[in-house]
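Hi C.,

You asked whether I'd gotten around to modeling the 175-residue construct. I have! Everything is below, sequence then structure, no commentary in between.
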Amino acid sequence: MIQLVLFDVDGVLTDGTIWMDGSGEAFKGFHVQDGLAVSLLHAHGIRSGVLSGKTSAPLDARIKQLGFDVAVTGTLGKAEALVSITSELGISADEVAFVGDDIVDLPLAGIVGQFYAPSDAHPLVLAAANVVLTRPGGRGVAREAAEHVLAARGLSLEDMYKPLLETMTTSHVVQ
């Protein structure tokens, strides 16, 4: 059973566009549906995180805002990072789902329990994925993956969202 869902960032949580000014990366666009996916996973006791080859101030702000359980950025050694993450959390790689879109994500295919790809991922990633999602990167991919993980636990859409709907007036849900 999946206990942790990890997301690549550029091309998964964003559409892959990098907005730069003279100081470097200045902006990233994130989809609100993907933000709510983190709350959805947490409501069902599933941890979430990012595993990204890049690092940036906009990404750091989004990680903090959403309250990810795991954040590993600035590393292209994703398989090695996964070993560290699973060891630290006391889970196996089979209990991890990963959503990736490009060739730097391929080392995780076949290692994690579920490997998801956005619909616009690189052809090699699409071929390696256990599940190809219907949405392109940056357009609700995390939400679709979260719903897929919860559906695999036998939950209907209504059951998935019931904990969030019951607590939305008494707790903070970040989009």
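If it helps when you're writing up: Residues 32-43 form the longest helix (12 residues).

Thanks,
B.
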